Each structure stands twice: as C-alpha cells, then as structure tokens.
C-alpha cells in the first residue's frame, strides 16, 4: 500500500509492503527511501507537528513496536515527519529543450520556498475580556457555523511583545469556508483615532474557522493564507500577528475554544507583494496548497503548489487584563461615534 509522508519539504509517497508493519519498520523505510536518518525522525498523525516549536507533545508514534494499523494508518493515510538537519531530495532531471528562457523563468528557478524558523514577534498577549468577547459571539450566536474576523489593536513593546487590548470587527459576510470583509475606510479611520487616543495601533488580524473546517487536514486553507498575508502586507509592523480561533475536541469529548497565533513568513509577504500567488481559487482546488503563477522550488522540486504550512511561523500566546481606566475611555469614545456599530471592546 501507499502512504503519504508530509514534512517541511512537502508531500512524498512511500510504498509499504503490508499494513501490519511496526513504527520501527516504518522509520527504516523512511530512512531507506527518503534519506532521513532514523535517529532524526519524529513521526505523528497530528499535523501540528510541522509547525510546533517543541516535539514533546507528539508521542502517538513514539513506541517502535506499535503497529501502524493500530493507529488507523492505511492506504492513502498521511503521516507527518519532523526531522533535524538536511537531506538530499531527489528532483526531476534537468532536460535541455532549446527553449528560450525569459528573465521571469530564470528568477522563478531561483525562488526557493523554505520555512522561517523564528517569528519577528516575541509573543502575543490577549486581554482576557477582549478574547472572550470575540469568541463568545462566534460560539454562542453563530455556533462556529460561519467564519468571523476582525482587526486587533494594542501595543508592541521594545522586545517585540504584542499586547492585544481590543478587537474591531468590520462589516462582513461569512460562510463556512470564506470570509468577506466589507471594509469602510471612513469607519476604519474612526477606529484608528480611538486607538491613537489610547496609545494603541493596529497589531494584527483575527478570524475563526468554522466547525466544518475542523474535518480537514490543514492549519490554514489557501483562502485564509491569501487573506492573512494581504492584510499583513498592508502594515509596516514587522510584529504583525494573525490569530486563528476554532473549536477543538477535548479529552472528555467536549468542545473547547482554542486560539492559535502565527505570523505569515517574510517570504510569504514578499511573494504576495510581487504577485506570485494565483488568487483564483476554485472549489476543486486542494485547500491545503497555495497555487503560484510561476514554478518555485520546494524541497529540490519545481512546483506551482506550496503546502500552506511553509508560510506559517508560530507565535507564543498568553493573556492579560486591561486596566479599567483604558476600558472606560474606550467605551466613552465608542459611544460618541454613532456609525461605529461594529466596534468591539469588552468594557
């Protein structure tokens, strides 16, 4: 049977002699066919392995004697692989066809997609009331059936820590898989004025994933990557943060609201500004892959499809409590602006 191995180098296929091999035997096959030493391998069925800063939580495939069939791994399954160091990935043979190459062709051949190991932001801390207010509406009123988004406002200190103190939700239309922001420049100027009066600025973008998206195997979809990098590219703030809010099943079988923080990588922003992304996304397109207008190099292979996880840089997330006086001033300013019906601050 065939299983798929997804690593920082992309998606690769691995032929398995039978479905009852052990994890130890699987690692040997990966070493033989994918050139990753056994001692460097960390395997998991959890996709967050590829974007996590620590490998300690990923123990589901740590027992070498466990049968892969006992973990539900069968033909077509995806196993996630993290490893340290470098390896040689076999790419397609280069053939000289005599075709005249343009300057764009040459540039594309040099565009290598690699992961950004560390964020430009030290961490992000949410005001507990602001975070609760945003998720409470999505959870209690919308039941996470459709997507919802907003812009985060707060401060950035000298070490790169972002504090989020209130969230502004512009007029919008959300469906299960897409979010359309109906942005009003005049209204946003009023919000900017409120933030400036509080000594704050726009520091990031927050959005929810619907319950239906919880059945998928991606961290961010191609549509979410495009929207996140678009709003990040509007800002000159290198510490800009993107936060995803979603429901996750807990150990008791219930649902917990979960916040995850990322930055879109510097390379992702560069590619967007230079118009590398193909923005025409079709329903049949794989949501975990971002399409490029020109070929790029990923793991030694030329491709026009890039795994979205290559563009995500994990940011640590914490919480805090805003001073009461800040909340009162925020509320006072908000109620003076009659048109600002979508202003969200948890006063």
TrEMBL record:
Domain MPN: 123-264
Classification via PROSITE patterns: MPN
Pfam family, one: UN_NPL4
Coiled coil location: none
Stored SUPFAM superfamilies: Ubiquitin-like (SSF54236)
InterPro entries according to UniProt: MPN, Npl4, NPL4_C, Npl4_Ub-like_dom, Ubiquitin-like_domsf
Name the UniProt record assigns to this protein: NPL4-like protein 2
Similarity comment: family membership: Belongs to the NPL4 family.
């Amino acid at each position: 049977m065939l299983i798929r191995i997804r690593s920082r180098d992309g998606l690769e296929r691995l032929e398995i002699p039978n479905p009852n091999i052990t994890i130890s035997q699987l690692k040997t096959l990966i070493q033989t066919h994918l050139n990753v030493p056994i001692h460097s391998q960390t395997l998991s069925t959890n996709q967050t392995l590829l974007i996590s800063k620590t490998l300690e939580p990923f123990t589901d495939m740590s027992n070498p004697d466990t049968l892969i069939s006992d973990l539900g791994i069968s033909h077509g399954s995806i196993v996630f692989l993290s490893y340290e160091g470098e390896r040689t990935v076999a790419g397609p043979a280069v053939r000289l066809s005599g075709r005249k190459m343009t300057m764009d062709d040459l540039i594309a051949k040099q565009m290598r997609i690699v992961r950004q190991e560390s964020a430009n932001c030290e961490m992000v801390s949410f005001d507990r009331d602001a975070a609760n207010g945003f998720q409470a509406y999505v959870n209690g009123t919308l039941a996470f059936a459709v997507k919802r988004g907003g812009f985060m406002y707060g401060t950035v200190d000298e070490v790169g820590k972002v504090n989020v103190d209130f969230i502004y939700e512009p007029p919008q239309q959300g469906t299960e898989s897409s979010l359309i922001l109906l942005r009003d420049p005049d209204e946003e100027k009023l919000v900017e004025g409120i933030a400036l009066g509080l000594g704050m600025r726009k520091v990031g973008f927050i959005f929810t994933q619907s319950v239906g998206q919880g059945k998928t195997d991606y961290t961010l979809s191609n549509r979410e990557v495009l929207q996140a990098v678009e709003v990040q590219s509007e800002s000159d703030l290198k510490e800009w943060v993107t936060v995803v809010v979603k429901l996750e099943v807990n150990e008791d079988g219930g649902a917990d609201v979960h916040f995850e923080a990322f930055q879109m990588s510097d390379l992702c922003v560069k590619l967007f500004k230079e118009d590398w992304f193909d923005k025409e996304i079709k329903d049949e397109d794989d949501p975990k892959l971002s399409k490029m207008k020109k070929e790029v190099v990923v793991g030694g292979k030329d491709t026009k499809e890039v795994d979205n996880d290559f563009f995500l840089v994990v940011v640590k997330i914490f919480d805090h409590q805003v001073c009461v006086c800040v909340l009162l001033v925020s509320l006072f300013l908000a109620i003076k602006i009659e048109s600002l019906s979508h202003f969200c601050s948890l006063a």
